[in-house]
Design a protein that fits this description.
The complex is a heterodimer of chains A (about 110) and B (about 110). Chain A is mainly beta and about 110 residues long. Chain A has no helices and eleven strands. In chain A, strands 2, 4, 5, 6, 9, 10 and 11 form a seven-stranded mixed beta sheet that branches. In chain A, strands 1-3-8-7 form a four-stranded antiparallel beta sheet, with no helix packed on it. By secondary structure, chain B is mostly beta strands. Helix content of chain B is about 0%, strand content about 55%. In chain B, strands 2, 4, 5, 9, 10 and 11 form a six-stranded mixed beta sheet that branches. A five-stranded antiparallel beta sheet of chain B has the order 1-3-8-7-6, with no helix packed on it. The chains are: A mainly beta (about 110), B mainly beta (about 110). At the A-B interface, β5 and β10 of A face β4, β5 and β9 of B.
Chain lengths: ~110, ~110
């Protein structure tokens, strides 16, 4: 079974731009969660989608948004990028509450 | 809000010494999960504990869930270089959301 696939692997943007990250969950997994991780920091929860509906949301500004499609693939969007948005963005799909993470997208904002 | 405190933040050990990380929740958890993130990698699911007082072993790793389902620990016996990484606990709170500890980074001294 293929794992969680995140694209792109690396991304460089400038302040003010917007970015869209993609996540394909493990086949059969209907829940997708997104996390932000900065060096030395833990995992900061962004949001979770289940069957195309946002089920939970973390404490991030409205510039961070997401969606899930009928095939369970998910995208997250960050608008008006700030320097502080530079981070590793991890997507995880889950079945029976256990999370399976992708390799992440490393976003650098210059 | 619900919080999970994880200590210590870092632990330096000589190879062959033991390692322990602890998690304490401000509220009762329905279950707790443990993940390991190798340097440069993504978190990988290790185990889930559900029952009060539960103890589970995986080779040299011992996981415990407290009687009140508010605390948990991970103990590694006789650490090896392959154990290097950051260990995270994640407790499931009242609204189905996972609450993550900040992680404990295990560093093996040369």
């Amino acid at each position: 079974k293929a794992g969680v696939t995140q694209t792109p692997r690396y991304l460089i943007k400038t302040r003010g731009q917007q970015v869209t990250l993609s996540c394909s969950p493990i086949s059969g997994h209907r829940s997708v969660s997104w996390y932000q991780q900065t060096p030395g920091q833990g995992l900061q929860f962004l949001f979770e989608y289940f069957s195309e509906t946002q089920r939970n949301k973390g404490n991030f500004p409205g510039r961070f948004s997401g969606r899930q499609f009928s095939n369970s693939r998910s995208e997250m969007n960050v608008s008006t990028l700030e320097l502080g948005d530079s981070a590793l963005y991890l997507c995880a799909s889950s079945l029976d509450e256990k999370l399976f993470f992708g390799s992440g997208t490393q976003l650098s904002v210059l | 809000g619900q919080q999970v405190m994880q200590i210590p933040q870092y632990q330096h050990v000589q190879e062959g010494e033991d390692f322990t990380t602890y998690c304490n929740s401000s509220t009762t958890l329905s279950n707790i999960q443990w993940y390991k993130q190798r340097p440069g990698g993504h978190p990988v699911f290790l185990i889930q504990l559900v029952k009060s007082g539960e103890v589970k072993k995986q080779k040299r790793l011992t996981f415990q869930f407290g009687e009140a389902k508010k605390n948990s620990s991970l103990h590694i016996t006789a650490t090896q270089t392959t154990d290097v990484g950051t260990y995270f606990c994640a407790g499931q709170g009242s609204n189905y959301q996972l609450i993550w500890g900040a992680g404990t980074k295990l560093i093996i001294k040369p």
